[in-house]
Amino acid sequence: MLQQTQVRTVIPYWERWLRELPDVAALATAPEQRVLKLWEGLGYYTRARNLQKAAQQIMRDHAGQFPCDFEAILALPGVGRYTAGAIASIAFNQPTSILDGNVIRVLTRLFAIAGNPRDKATNERLWQLADQLVQVASSIQHPASNIQHLVFAGSCSVLNQSLMELGATVCTPQNPQCAACPLRDHCVAHHTGRVAELPALPPRAAATRREFYTFVIEHDGEFLVTQRPSGGVNAGLWEFPNLEVTGRHRTPTATLKELLGLTAACAAFASLTHSITRYRITQRAFRTRVRRRPALTPASRWLPLEELHRLPFTSAHQRLLAQLAA
Ligand code: SF4
Q1: What string of pLDDT tens digits covers the 326 residues of the chain?
Q2: Mutate to test the pocket of ligand 1, among 183, 185, 192 (most ligand atoms within 8 A of CB)
Q3: 216 is in which domain, residue-wise?
Q4: Residue 1: CB within 6 Å of ligand 1?
Q5: Where are the beta strands (DSSP E) in 71-221?
Q6: What atom in ligand 1 is closest to the CA of residue 106?
């Protein structure tokens, strides 16, 4: 839930999720549309689907108990090397390494690693350093490790959380607080004046602008919506009919004709902008009433407003739905 999202935003999602899906069995058996609805607005919906697949695998292969073994955690859908290492170390205090953006920043500066951390050789070197650190940590008896009820008491758990937290709060991308850093005596970049040049990340890809025309189409108190196909972006989520118009000089009425074969006057309804990865997307929404309903595809439905609220919508279209209901 926290990927690309602030803690403050996530808290109500987290609380609602745990209220409705309080354990692995509940998640494994929930309807997928319910899971997507609970995730609505967080984006990256593949994570929600993978969480459910993981819950189903845990029920099937682990008798409903979350596995504590690194390889078994890694075998869960949606779990990669970093996530498996984080769970195994933080929850189960195993000597497994982690390497995310924050840890990469700390390690490249601490050891003055000059290569691009996304290049294979440099990335593997950073994993090795993270491995060595957690192996050393595993041999240290943490003062709190004999307190049974503290899940986070082990030294591997503490080390990995400390690296992440240091990167997030002290060794920040801009203006790192070296004077207050507990690692400054050991930090090669700090001693050699190279903090600003590390990590040596390549420049970001330029943003690409995309524009969509979206149509809020009403007939007899119901609205036309379509479900996104499986296997693609935002699979299974719902949205109002829309078409990408970047680079084309089409009027809304011509676009509506092209999209659905409908001829109707369109009134400007809303204009929203949002970003997905490197795309800067503008949704220009138009509202229209039609006298006849176009032929439905298997993925589309006419529904009244109150039923639309029960469906999981993509984030931008959820905002349109909120404006429609206002
Ligand atoms: S001394 Fe500065 S550059 Fe080095 S780890 Fe600490 S905050 Fe980062």
Answers
A1: 988 788 899 999 999 999 999 999 999 999 999 999 999 989 889 999 999 999 999 999 999 999 999 999 999 999 999 999 999 999 999 999 999 999 999 999 999 999 999 999 999 999 999 999 999 998 876 555 444 444 445 899 999 999 999 999 999 999 999 999 999 999 999 999 999 999 999 988 899 999 999 999 999 999 999 999 988 889 999 999 999 998 777 899 999 999 999 999 999 999 999 988 889 999 999 999 998 888 888 899 999 999 999 999 998 999 999 999 88
A2: 183
A3: 208-325
A4: no
A5: 208-219
A6: 5
104, 113, 181: residue to mutate for ligand 1 pocket, most atoms within 8 A of CB: 181
Q: Give residue 136 CA to ligand 1 midpoint distance, Å.
A: 20
Considering the domain architecture, whether residues 300 and 317 belong to the same structural domain is answered as yes
How far from 201 is each of 119, 196, 278, CA to CA, in Å?
Answer: 10, 11, 16
178 Cβ below 6 A of ligand 1: yes
Q: Is 265 domain-assigned?
A: yes
C-beta of 194 in contact with ligand 1 (< 6 A): no
Q: 8: Cβ–Cβ under 8 A, 6 or more apart, which residues?
A: none
Looking at 145, 170, 202, the residue that finishes a domain is 202
Which structure tokens are listed for 158? 């503490």
Domain's final residue, options 176, 202, 228? 202
d(CA 211, CA 217) in angstroms, rounded, equals 19
Task: Please name the residue that has the structure tokens 């409908």.
Answer: 262
